[in-house]
Amino acid sequence: MTTSNDPKSLSQARFGEFATAYLTSTPHVEGEDLTKLFTMANPQPNWVALDIATGGGHTANLIAPHVKFMVAGDITYKMLRAAQTRLSQHDNTTYTTTDAEHLAFAPSTFDLVTCRIAPHHFPNCFRFIQECARVLKPNGKLVIEDHYVPENDHAARYIDAFEQLRDPSHHRIYAEYEWRGMYLDAGLVVDETVLMHKSSGGFLDWANRQKCTPETIEKLELMLIQAPQDVKDFLHPRAIGTPEADFDHSYILISGHKPV
Questions:
Q1: Can you say how many angstroms the Cα of residue 14 is from the centroid of all Cα atoms in its chain?
Q2: Domain presence at residue 235
Q3: CATH code at position 47
Q4: pLDDT of amino acid 78
């Protein structure tokens, strides 16, 4: 039974139901952030690469033509099947259901591990980083993109509450210093971080992607309207209550490597 006390089952249920929406979601399919992630990854022809929580397969699809072998993994089987429709053109790509916190691979397997816009769903994000470090080869590279929040904890938790209202499988967003700390504590060297803001793709599209009820949409609008100023400075809400309503997501891209 899927309950809020079983976050991984909740993620599987929700993303299994909404898999097709994420396959075509504009903020996931394209953008400057995806291009930057590819540049930071800098995939090489002799590499074996892993994309964790591949979702619609957008990152794996971009990297696969540039590496020797590509593995796309996701905890949600239906999401993985949806990703295959995008990735089937690549004959060097395989698919596996795997838990990000318990990766089903031997140590020192991959030259590159990527994960895009997913770790905020993981109950134990540091455990995920440790697992990535374990499966990386020496000098292997870990490139992650996810939401980030202000260092002000009150503002950070307000943003979490906003995201959890829309998607109960949302767990927690981290500040930049927390991302750096997780990399360092897992034994990785941080090479580069990039911070950027990006439109949600339209407030209503964002809400409807998780099939929010009209009542939930109204509550989300109120949270944006009544948000503390430091939250508004981060989310940049605009035209709330109209069909053109929108706000920004803030993303961190962080790249690091496993020392020899």
A1: 15
A2: no
A3: 3.40.50.150
A4: 82
DSSP output for 132-164: HHHHEEEEEEEEEEEEB--S-HHHHHHHHHHHH
Tokens of 210: 């998780």
Dihedral in degrees, nearest 10, Cα atoms 29, 32, 34, 38: 140
- What range defines the domain where residue 74 resides? 7-148+169-198+250-257
Residue with tokens 């929040």: 149
Q: How far apart are CA 160 and CA 230, in angstroms?
A: 14
pLDDT below 70 — which residues of the chain? 1-30, 86-87
- How many domains, in total, are found in the chain? 1
Q: What is the pLDDT of residue 20?
A: 59
In a domain, 32, yes or no: yes
57 burial via Cβ count (<10 Å: 0-12, 13-18, 19+): buried
In a domain, 58, yes or no: yes
Alpha helices by DSSP H, the chain: 7-17, 19-24, 26-29, 32-41, 58-63, 77-87, 125-135, 153-166, 176-185, 203-208, 214-225, 229-235
Q: Is residue 216 part of a domain?
A: no
pLDDT for residue 112:
98
- Predicted structure pTM score: 0.88
